[in-house]
Amino acid sequence: MTSRPLLVTSCQVVTSLLLMTSWSLVTAQHRSTVHFLPDSLTLQEVRGGGEEVGELVREAFSLLRSSLDSLLPSSTPSLRSGDHLGETVFAEEVRSRRIQVSVSVSNSISTLSPHTREAYTLSTRTPTHSNTTTVTILASDFFGARHALETLGQLVEWDSHMEALQMVSRAAITDAPVFRYRGLMVDTSRNFLSMEALKRTLDGMAATKLNTLHLHLTGSHSFPLYLPGVPNMAFYGAYGARKLYSPEDLRELQGYARLRGVRLVPETDTPAHTSNGWQWGRKENLGDLAVCINKEPWRDFCDAPPCGQLNLANNHTYTVLSRIYAHLRHAFHPLHFFHFGGSEVNFNCWNTTEDIVAYLEREGIGRQEEDFYRLWGKFQARAQDLLLDVNNGRPVLGVVRSSSLTEEGRIGEFLSPEEYVVQVSGTDDNTGHLLRKGYRVILSHSDAWDFSCGLGRSCRSWYRSDKAENLTEDASYKGWQAVYDLSPYEIARGLTGRRHEDLVMGGEAVLWGHQVDGANIDAKLWPRSAALGERLWSNPSMGWYDAEPRFVHHRQRLVSRGINADRIQPEWCHQNEGHCYL
After folding, report:
1. Residue 548: inside a domain
2. How many angstroms separate the CA atoms of 70 and 557, rounded?
3. What angle do CA 74, 79, 83 make, to 5 degrees?
4. For 546, phi and psi rounded to 5 degrees?
5. Does residue 536 lie within any of the structural domains?
6. Are residues 110 and 238 in the same domain?
7. pTM score, two decimals?
8. How many Cα neighbours within 13 Å face the side chain of 132?
9. Which one of 29, 89, 141, 580 is most buried, counting C-beta atoms within 10 A?
10. What CATH number does residue 451 fall under?
11. What are phi and psi of 510, to 5 degrees?
């Protein structure tokens, strides 16, 4: 059967043929469990896939071993050797138990493309009177094998009564994701996020089978990227010398993510939200690379301070942009997705800038609203060409946020459905018209999947006064229950009458960084993101109520792995399932 990511409570004895494990429903063929010691779990063989995939599987198995170590109540050596068990029949059975894992991979795919299957089957078998439990994994690709190892880890728990690890003796799982794009977005521009914070985020995503971390790398607040070809971007744009990412950092993060089954999608937000980092052009005799930088009153020139938009009349702007793209292409190679940003453009900024006005006059372009849309659209086409050029002519799927440029009657003029995916944040018919026109979409609907909300201000009005009219419904905290119950296919069906499985690529929860840094990012993302993970992995027909016991336990697992996930309920409820629900 198709499962969801997997759960077993530490004090739970298997009493049902339908074993509920951490974030997956598993067909259990036997009601018993076997107990074993951490070092008894071994990888016997890896077949198929080639040398690179084989090495990745072995590294992923090492991560599995580490996750099991996190279940132990302490690092006391006797817990590994079994000396603490004494000399009993049970102790001898535990010490002699072997868990042997074999993995077969169908192909040599080692990078996560939009078409990677990520599928696997996993079976555990314990012959009668045998001290060996075999685990057999068959995977479509490395990513399926990695997910299978994650599922295996979630079939294991520490038995505090018997003081040993335990797992089901027999189980059969057939598993594959419903959606190929299962994402989170974090914002490194408004507040810097350390490498450690980003790695913890990836660890949580691995535990939840989310496969895309969208990095909103730059914005008007800061430019935290040190790029050797354009060092002035960081010199003028970073918050400090220790608050930036080097090319080596980005490549390290890319490798860390791949091993955990996650692709990284970089974003440099343009043509708006370009301020700090772009103000050095005149000193280098390049003219203004961006305009309206820090201009006041900001409400007249941008959506939120500090203001700044690219100077589309300056050819040097495109030269610098091309160099930025070249560095990002190298750091995030192979590049399957690239996020251009592309929202909240303020036409008044351009309409009051001498360079832009003079350019429009030279080109015989007017200054009406539709003229500025054409200017914006022309920029986007040129940006896409720059990216294609630095990627040696290999197409990259561009992602843009829904905006006035993507509205019905306008998007077809500027954005091709073959080249672009639209990330949709609203719940109105903007999604419907995109689907009807054949555009692929990634849903990030703010009524459930905007994790920035809930601290007393509207999610979209961080800098405005706290007047009652600004405190809209959008300001409410988005609990994990709302996250879990939002179905992308049902959104599509409600707007168009069809599920559009070919066009709804998946979803992404967004966490804008206005009030987020490394100190609180874990609690902002987790465990809510686990609810997103299950929704996008299996699109369950059940609602959050049925998932809650497993969800609470999965939160405990995240904490054991060093992720400071928010608390969901009193521990008593976790230990006494079924007694804390209405």
Report:
1. no
2. 9
3. 145
4. -70, -25
5. yes
6. no
7. 0.94
8. 8
9. 141
10. 3.20.20.80
11. -115, 140
pLDDT in tens, 484-514: 999 999 999 999 999 999 999 999 999 999 9
Per-residue model confidence (pLDDT) at position 32: 84
Question: In sequence order, what are the beta bridge partners of 263?
Answer: 212
Residue whose token pair is 């080109």: 363
Q: Are residues 153 and 44 in the same domain?
A: yes
Shared domain for 169 and 257, answered yes or no, is: no
Q: Which two tokens stand for residue 494?
A: 């409600």
Residue carrying structure tokens 């042997």? 100
* Chain length of the chain: 582
3-state secondary structure 424-478: ECCCCCHHHHHHHCCCEEEECCCCCCECCCCCCCCCCCCCCCCCHHHCCHHHCCC
In this structure, are 168 and 255 located in the same domain?
no
Q: What are phi and psi for residue 170, nearest 5 degrees?
A: -140, 130
Question: Greater confidence, 333 or 9?
Answer: 333
Q: Where are the beta strands (DSSP E) in 189-242?
A: 212-218
pLDDT tens sequence across 57-106 = 999 999 999 999 999 998 888 888 888 899 999 999 999 999 999 999 99
Contact predicate 191/44, CB 8 Å:
no
Q: Could you tell me if 431 and 515 lie in one domain?
A: yes
Residues 31 and 117 in one domain: yes
Nearest to 405 by CA among 431, 440, 432, 370: 370
Which domain range does residue 443 map to? 194-264+427-493+502-543
- 141 is written with which tokens? 């690709």
Residues 163 and 116 in one domain: yes
Please check whether residue 459 is in contact with residue 510, taking contact to mean a CB–CB distance below 8 angstroms. no
Phi-psi region of 456 (alpha: psi -120 to 50; beta: other; left: phi over 0): left
- The total number of structural domains in the chain stands at 2
d(CA 32, CA 29): 9
Q: What is d(CA 44, CA 103) in angstroms, rounded to the nearest whole number?
A: 8
* 3-class state of residue 288 by DSSP: coil
Q: Confirm whether 401 is domain-assigned.
A: no
Q: Are residues 213 and 164 in the same domain?
A: no
Order of strands, edge to edge, in the sheet holding 156-159? Answer: 33-36, 164-168, 156-159
